[in-house]
Amino acid sequence: MALIAIGGSVGAGLFIGSGAVIGLAGPAAVVSYVLAGALVFFTLRALGEMVVAVPAGGSFSDYARLAFGPRAGFTIGWVYWWMYAVLVAAESVAGATILGGWVPGVPGWALALLVLLSMTVANVVSVRVFAETESLFSVVKVAAIVAFLVVGGLWALGLWSGSGGSSVANLWQHGGFAPQGWVAVLAATVVVLFAFGGVEIVTVAAGESAEPERGVALAVTNVLWRIGLFYVASIAVVVTVLPWDTVDAVRSPFVAVMEHVGVPGAAVIMEVVVFVAVLSVLNAAMYTSSRMLFTLIRQGDAPRFLGGTSGRGVPVRAILLGTVVGYAAVVADYVWPERVFPFLVSSIGAILLILFLVICASQLVVGARVRRREPQRLTLRMWAFPYLTWVVLGGLVVIFVAMLVIADQRQALLASVGSVVVALVAYEVRRRVGAFSPSDRVLAVPGRPGAEGLRRGRGDV
């Protein structure tokens, strides 16, 4: 489970998207990662309280359903699916960017199509492919990041042969620590959110384990050290080794660091690792989008014919539906080359921002309801409830407003809000023409207490 969580959250957002973050914030990109990491960590703690107190088999969309009714559950469920469909597109384009350096002359859209088709076939052939490839990919990524931190850290401190002394001065030279201003640091935090897509999976999965309290607490703790090691420490090494204004927004800064250090073959190896990381997250995104669609079908929020499986038990229709946005991105990459990936990155960050807002809002309602009706369920608590939840919610709202104000982020935010509007319209259509009314019941976890006593009643929100 830990390897799958790493596989789902360490990909193009870190290895490639970090270049755009550094370009926006300079060395203060480290602060952007710390801010985003703190918001993610506390949001997962809020989610963890709900997962343990009110076990649900429909991911966190069921907590929105429990707090605000079937409309919210339906909408967030489909928006969550949409996020992973967009993630499939983003990782395909990112993979094409890397391949473009190995096979010059081949159009980016053609390479993106090749990457997407290859991973689609691999997922459709067998269910076993996901677990086997994801474990291998994750081990490769963890080992590469640890090696990167050791080599880059020694170089930055002047302890690596040929370094010529410490390069720590890069943190304040070249325009200062925050050369673009602190508003730019806030803007960069939005892009950073893209890198954290996938971390919420392990919290929900742990909640369905034999020891949910221990599993969720361990999952949240693992997220904390993963944020510190993989994200913050890695970016600190990049901006210490390289002057921030030399980092290319469309090329992996990790590869650039290895080239700068000059270890024979290290840059090529890191480039291969980055490509493996992209395939890993693409693989995880295809898996998660298909499973989320199955959850929507179980809840009655998606057509049942989409849940069909092949003779080998592969949900072919669900997987193919999750790749539709990817193929649209291939066409977009043909029309607007080099503009698609940054837009997709911002879009995923915006969708994740919306999802985190809903998680915190749901926890305020569900947490208060549990404390009032069945406090014995609270074996894992959100710290300083409800004040800390309100603080996190406020921080997410600030980022939302920042996206609306900053021109480069506004289009992606509006597109993401548009996806919410589409889901709301779809709900109204479903409510009016469906064979039965949408349910406000959450999917039960076998062997665990249900949520019947915590459903909305008179006087509840």
Question: What is the third-level CATH name, the topology?
Answer: Amino acid/polyamine transporter I
**Which bin fits the share of residues in helices?**
over 70%
Share in β-strands:
under 5%
Regions with little confidence, pLDDT below 50 for 5+ residues: none
Distance between the termini: 35 Å
Radius of gyration: 22 Å
Count of strand segments: 0
Structural domain count = 1
Mean pLDDT, all residues = 83
So, CATH architecture?
Answer: Up-down Bundle
State the fourth-level CATH superfamily. Answer: Amino acid/polyamine transporter I
CATH class: Mainly Alpha
Q: Which structural class fits the helix and strand makeup? A: mainly alpha
Task: Give the number of helices.
Answer: 18
Largest sheet: none
Shape: globular
User: SSE string, helix = H, strand = E?
Assistant: HHHHHHHHHHHHHHHHHH
What is the topology?
Blueprint: H1 2-9, H2 12-15, H3 17-25, H4 29-53, H5 61-68, H6 70-102, H7 108-125, H8 128-156, H9 182-195, H10 199-207, H11 212-241, H12 253-261, H13 266-299, H14 316-322, H15 324-335, H16 340-373, H17 387-405, H18 407-433
Helix pairs in contact: 1-8, 1-10, 1-13, 3-9, 4-9, 4-10, 4-11, 4-16, 4-17, 5-6, 5-16, 6-7, 6-13, 6-15, 6-16, 6-18, 7-13, 7-15, 8-11, 8-12, 8-13, 9-16, 9-17, 10-11, 12-13, 13-14, 16-17, 16-18, 17-18
